[in-house]
């Protein structure tokens, strides 16, 4: 069908830290060179920041480069880190506090800030618009525009007003628009659905290790001012994950931000083996541990959300470029897991791609080529140096566990500065790590008390998640028979548990038959299902624009 189109020099998919940093950098560099470069950013959330979720302790290194005067411009970095407390939780009521001298250097946060990444992205979007960038929230990029020569020429936004069967709804239907570009940057975040397609089409990961992921679940609490210590950063490892028959790891965070609030969450490595494990329920019981409970008791939970994170690091980076475009940020996988930080690295990757684009346009380029200057700039940047220095962190934890892996990382980071003369590899995809249900111990999670711990549906409610119900289901099954025919008998259908929003259910019908039910309305866009399904049968695609969570300050 004929569609309306708009043309730009650069189209960026995703208004997160990498996409917005790229947009700002392009306009800054173009202005310095006296160039006119048109830039458009599309964002599937109802507003910039609506789908942004991060811890977040923020390292301002990339922001210092992008906006040296960010303080004068009012960037929302208001809470400098004052202290790091790190605990090994050895049981449900036991812990050991680690002395600073035994903590890897990467886990120290002097000079960093506790922030809301959503609010930082809102501020960055304002700076981008001030520079002349066109920012369009509420428009989901549905697919890449690829010409007959295999060149990416922009993106197609999703149709609006389509019913569940894919038919236009009378009076509501608006066809998607082509946004054409000389260069297109994909900044969709972790496991971007177009990025995944591009990696496969152009075989971008042929020389990379398997990408690895975690799921991060986060809440914001208002707490008793007497218990609040603005700037305090608390991290934990160990319990509850290590005592559930799970052969992998994770860790929690609790950050004291402004206004007597704390940001509390749990990251669970998605390489876990036990199909009975529920990351959501592990997080709920974590909050009853005395190290965490001491701050939350008497407080009130005010927000909830979840998202997957890319944590494979340097070893898992795919090729960055393809004809007409590039991957940046978490679509590429630039998070530094040794620091548990990916926002400054995402920003830097976007800035490096931006520099390559401006150079290509300045040289008279018409687009469609591979931005070879981008990976070259990456190789000579502090971003590469940082990711190289942390390349062993995740594989060490996966191979040796939290204790011995932590000891290896202490030696690597504190003694060798990340340059130990060996590189550990972790080539098994996360979904392939799952044991059969019959081989793994069942886990009996305590019922939530409604005070510190809660159920999934009440949690989704405070994420402000909403989707137009009469639209095509955005969680598609490659083979509808697999959940009941394969995953249920082999793995007790783990989608019931790894989803932190109650999207997937196995329902027993009146005739006793089992049915797999998808409650797509609940989806918080974490994409864990797309990653962890042991049969790789679930495909997450973007729903209508504005659908999903509406996080105020996550």
Automatic annotation (TrEMBL):
It catalyses: a ubiquinone + reduced [electron-transfer flavoprotein] = a ubiquinol + oxidized [electron-transfer flavoprotein] + H(+). It is an enzyme of class 1 (oxidoreductase). Its EC number is 1.5.5.1. Gene3D superfamilies: 3.30.70.20, 3.30.9.90, FAD/NAD(P)-binding domain. Keywords: Electron transport, FAD, Flavoprotein, Iron, Iron-sulfur, Metal-binding, Oxidoreductase, Transport, Ubiquinone. InterPro entries: 4Fe4S_Fe-S-bd, ETF-QO, ETF-QO/FixC_UQ-bd, ETF-QO/FixX_C, FAD/NAD-bd_sf. Its cofactor is FAD; [4Fe-4S] cluster. It holds the Pfam family Fer4_ETF_QO. The keyword Transport applies. The keyword Flavoprotein applies. Residues 514-543 form the 4Fe-4S ferredoxin-type domain. Transmembrane segments: none annotated. Binds 1 [4Fe-4S] cluster. PANTHER family: ELECTRON TRANSFER FLAVOPROTEIN-UBIQUINONE OXIDOREDUCTASE, ELECTRON TRANSFER FLAVOPROTEIN-UBIQUINONE OXIDOREDUCTASE, MITOCHONDRIAL. Accepts electrons from ETF and reduces ubiquinone. This is Electron transfer flavoprotein-ubiquinone oxidoreductase.
């Amino acid at each position: 069908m004929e569609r309306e189109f708009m043309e730009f020099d650069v189209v960026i998919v995703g208004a997160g830290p990498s996409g917005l940093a790229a947009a700002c950098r392009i306009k800054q560099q173009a202005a310095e060179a006296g160039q006119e470069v048109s830039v458009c950013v599309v964002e599937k959330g109802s507003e910039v920041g609506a789908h942004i979720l991060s811890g977040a302790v923020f390292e301002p290194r990339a922001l210092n480069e992008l906006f040296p005067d960010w303080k004068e411009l009012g960037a929302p970095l208001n809470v400098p880190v004052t202290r790091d407390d790190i605990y090994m939780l050895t049981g449900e009521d036991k812990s050991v506090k680690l002395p600073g001298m035994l903590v890897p250097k990467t886990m120290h946060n002097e000079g960093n800030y506790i922030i809301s990444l959503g609010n930082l992205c809102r501020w960055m979007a304002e700076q981008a618009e001030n520079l002349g960038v066109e920012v369009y929230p509420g428009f989901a990029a549905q697919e890449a525009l690829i010409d007959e020569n295999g060149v990416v020429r922009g993106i197609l936004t999703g149709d609006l007003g389509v019913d569940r069967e894919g038919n236009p709804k009378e009076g509501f239907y608006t066809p998607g628009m082509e946004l054409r570009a000389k260069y297109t940057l994909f900044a969709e975040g972790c496991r971007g659905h177009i990025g995944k397609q591009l990696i496969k089409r152009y075989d971008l990961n042929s020389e990379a290790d398997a990408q690895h992921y975690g799921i991060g679940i986060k809440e914001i609490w208002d707490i008793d001012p007497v218990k609040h210590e603005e700037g305090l950063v608390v991290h934990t490892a160990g319990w509850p994950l290590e005592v559930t028959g799970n052969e992998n790891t994770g860790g929690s965070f609790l950050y004291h931000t402004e206004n007597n609030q704390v940001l509390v969450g749990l990251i669970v490595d998605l390489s876990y083996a036990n199909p009975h494990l529920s990351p959501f329920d592990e997080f709920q019981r974590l909050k009853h541990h005395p190290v965490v409970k001491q701050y939350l008791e008497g407080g009130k939970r005010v927000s909830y959300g979840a998202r997957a994170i890319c944590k494979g690091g340097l070893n898992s980076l795919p090729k960055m470029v393809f004809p007409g475009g590039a991957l940046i940020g978490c679509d590429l996988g630039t998070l530094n897991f040794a620091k548990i930080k990916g926002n400054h690295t995402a920003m830097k990757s976007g800035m490096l791609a931006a520099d390559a684009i401006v150079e290509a346009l300045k040289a008279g380029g018409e687009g469609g080529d591979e931005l070879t200057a981008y990976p070259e700039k990456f190789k000579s940047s502090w971003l590469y140096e940082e990711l190289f220095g942390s390349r062993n962190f995740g594989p060490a934890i996966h191979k040796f566990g939290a204790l011995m892996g932590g000891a290896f990382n202490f030696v690597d980071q504190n003694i060798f500065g990340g340059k130990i003369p060996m590189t550990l590899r972790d080539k098994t995809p996360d979904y392939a790590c799952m044991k059969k249900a019959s081989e793994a111990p069942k886990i009996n999670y305590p019922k939530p008390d409604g005070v510190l711990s809660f159920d999934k549906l009440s949690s989704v409610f405070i994420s402000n998640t909403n989707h137009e119900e009469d639209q095509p289901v955005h969680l598609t099954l490659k083979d509808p028979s697999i959940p009941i025919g394969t995953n249920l008998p082999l793995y007790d259908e783990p989608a019931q548990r790894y989803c932190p929003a109650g999207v997937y259910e196995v329902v027993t019908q009146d005739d006793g038959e089992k049915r797999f039910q998808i409650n797509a309305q609940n989806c918080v866009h974490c994409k864990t299902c797309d990653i962890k399904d042991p049969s790789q049968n679930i495909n997450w695609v973007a729903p209508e624009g504005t659908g999903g969570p509406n996080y105020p300050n996550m």
